[in-house]
Amino acid sequence: MEQSCTQHLKDVGAYLEPVFEPIAFDKDDFEFEASVIIPVRDRIKTVKDAIKSVLIQKTDFKFNLIVVDNHSTDGTTEAIAEFAKNDERLIHVIPNRDDLGIGGCWNMGVHHEKCGKFSIQLDSDDVYSDENTLQKIVKAFYEQNCAMVVGTYKMTDFDMNTIAPGIIDHKEWTPDNGRNNALRINGLGAPRAFYTPVLRDIKVPNTSYGEDYALGLNISRNYQIGRIYDVLYLCRRWDDNSDASLDIVKMNGHNTYKDRIRTWELLARQKD
What we know:
single chain; alpha/beta
């Protein structure tokens, strides 16, 4: 599949050689080395687990947690506020506008004055696999000199028992073809993390689906995307989880949107 896709990109003039723009990691001064960003709306059933999995992290650097609470009404706001009252590392942000998707919430977190050098994803339904996740992710940025890091996750039920298909590691991603691979897959994996100055320049699309994929395509045009093949993240699926209950019409709409993103990216690369 990779060989076929690579040949096609060469045929249409959109192939990029495996040469990446280097990063010195010295742009801007940051009080915190890393920030976990959780966008959330009405997730009282899971948000406490997500927050706890961040606050137990053990690192040799300063980190914080920015929770962008998109006008929750089910008790989520109060639960976040209780954590923030007892742990100053948690920054509770409530937008002053009501038209934000997940991407818009991410932009608020990334542009917050307390955002760290690296912005690290955690969805409000999910948890980190252990207390060393942040340390592993930040280490990967420096070792692999990348603008984005993608980890490995495991699918679980609500009680965190493994469900099919189990571990998602995207090992089919060949590093030598890193600038082109994102065009041939339908998702980059999780958790995702970004060098904050690069993310601030690109900005996150204000959507609630595909925003992370659009970022990965854009970043891979110029920068290395680092990989971690240890399981860092437990991705929970349960009856009320939106990703677990999509009908075929919605799924087709999502896939059409991703095809459009790929087309826009292909055209941008042909112009380069």
